[in-house]
Structure formats: C-alpha cells, structure tokens
Amino acid sequence: MSIAHPFTLGHSPDPDDAFMFYAIAQNKIDLRGYQFEHRLEDIQTLNERARRGELHISAISIHAYAYVTDKYALLPCGASMGDGYGPLVVRKRRIAEAANRLEGSALPCSPSSPAQGGKDWPPYPAPVIGDCVRQILRGCTIAVPGKLTSAFLALQLFLGEFKFIVVPFDRIFDAVESGSADAGLIIHEGQLTYTRSGFEKIVDLGEWWKGQTGLPLPLGGNVVRKDIPPLVRRDLSEIIRESIDYGLTHRDEAVAYSFAYARDMNVQLASKFIGMYVNEFTRDYGEIGRAAIGRFLGDAHKKGYINAPIELEFVE
Questions:
Q1: Do β-strands 7-11 and 36-40 pair in parallel, antiparallel, or remain unpaired?
Q2: Pairing of strands 88-91, 183-186
Q3: Which residues contact 306 (CB under 8 A, 6 or more apart)?
Q4: CB-CB contact of 11 with 45 (8 Å)
Q5: Residue 204, φ and ψ in degrees, nearest 5
Q6: Which candidate, 165, 27, 173, 30, places its Cα nearest to that of 88?
Q7: For residues 40 and 72, what is the distance between their CA atoms, to the nearest angstrom?
Q8: Closest among 11, 4, 6, 14 to 270, alpha carbons compared
Q9: b/e for 169-187, b at 16 or more Cβ within 10 A?
C-alpha cells in the first residue's frame, strides 16, 4: 500500500530510541510503501505535542498517555520499561550529611554512599530507610524534566507533594550544581553517568516500584493517532515491531548507528543503556507490561494525580 504523504514519527534523540527506529531510518526492512518523517525532540516536548495531536506516531511518556487517550492508541511494541531500575533522584551531598542536619531526627540514616554498594548500609528495614529518604526530600527543591514525564509521576507516587522546578532533562545536573535545586530527577543517560558527574543516588524509583508491586516501571511507549484507518495502524505497528526486531538481531550495527545519539557515553555504556530499555518488553508489552501500565496509572488515579480512570487501548 502506498501513502502519498509521509507519517510524522516523533522520538527522542537518545540511543535507545535511535536503536528502535534504526531499521526504519536506514531502510533496512520492508516499509510496505509507507514513508516516515522523523521528528527528534525531547520527551517533554513530544508529550506536549501529543496533547495537541500533532504527530501521527510518537514516543510518549506513559504518564502523558493518560491525557491523550481521546487522540491516540498505544502500540503493543516500543515500550521502555525499567525492570528493577529507572529514574533516579540524585544530589551532591550524601543522605547521611543531610539527615544529620535534620533537627531531632532519630532515623538511622547514615548509610555509606549508594555508589559504594548496599553491603555497608546498616541493617535497618527498607521502610525505615524509605521514610528517612522521604523526610529529606520533602525539605528539598527537586529539578524535574517535565510534569508529564513518567519519572515525575513515579516520584509523586513515592513522595507525595514536593517542591520542584521544571528544567530540560540535560540541564538537571547544572540546576543542582548551581544551587537552583537541592536534588535532581534524572532520566536517560544520566542514570549511568551521575557518579562520574559528582552526584550520588538518593533513590532509584524503578527499584522502589519493583519492591512495592513486583512489576517493571512503565516509563515510555509509542502511540499512533486514532484518525488513521485501523488497517494502516496495524501496518505501522508491524513495521515498528520489525524495526525493533531488526535492531535486536543486528545489535552491533544498530548500536553503532545509535552511538551518534549518545551523550557523555562511550560505546560500552551506550550499549548498556540500550540493553536496559530495549528488550523483550519493547518487542511486546505482554501481560506483565500491560499490568504494569494499569497499576501505574491506576495508583496515580487513586492518589488523585490523574483525574479519571484510564482505559488502555492498544492497536491489535
């Protein structure tokens, strides 16, 4: 089938998205007569454009999907899931140093730097450590990469209400360094480079979510506009899945292509980052992935962060 006008395809200029769409961008697979115009923009911009229904196909935060269900359906492929890992809250000072400044704090918050591993942490229950972290963070201003990001919603679920400023994702380290914020909510490659930049982890939201629910943390997905005919939507879904499969099958060449989009990472680190977020969940959410989205958005609705319950609609 031939389409006269190209479909706009929005995704982030990051190695994991570049990996997913490598085969489409480089004509490595049969595109079935369709044409694609790639729009590379940061995730918060893509979320905002999705709310306006501007792009035919787009990467999107799962949080933002809650606000575009009238315009878009989820593709069953293209998920970014953090299975026991995910966005991080980091700061320059150690948790111990901050905790010691809390007046009257009797909580046992004097673990070693998280960068040194968990073996030196004192043998207190995880809920006690979690409560300590929450107490510290509620006194902080946190730089976040956008209110529609899944990272922001995950932090709301972990922390409740908190003070924040919105900063482009690649300026969050700078915001903390300059003192504009006390802590930063880190997404993308910052999850692997924060220690090198002189920061320490306060909490890994994907790890926390996995401990709470036993599920991966649903961060991103791909959506397609509902005004596209159903048969065409199905074609587009199959093409994107084939692109993901091609990258996974031809991993070395796909990683080499994606490395052009890696910021502050060598090839080995970029490959590790891609492996974190392009995997079997990316090929298909499956029952676990779909359950994770339902739980994530359902908990957000119960706590009042999303106004209405969300019914998931996938291209089948």
A1: parallel
A2: antiparallel
A3: 66, 297, 300
A4: no
A5: -100, 115
A6: 173
A7: 19
A8: 14
A9: beebbebbeeeebbbbbbb
Under 8 Å between Cβ of 31 and 80 = no
Q: Which residue's entry shows tokens 């909580």? A: 107
Question: What are the φ and ψ backbone dihedral angles of 98, each rounded to 5 degrees?
Answer: -70, -40
User: Which residues are annotated as catalytic?
Assistant: 188
Given the structure tokens 């905790």, which residue do they identify?
Answer: 99
The per-residue pLDDT for range 270-281, each reduced to its tens digit, is 999 999 999 999
What's phi and psi for 86, nearest 5 deg? 170, -155
Tell me the pTM.
0.87
Residue pLDDT, tens place only, 160-170: 999 999 999 99
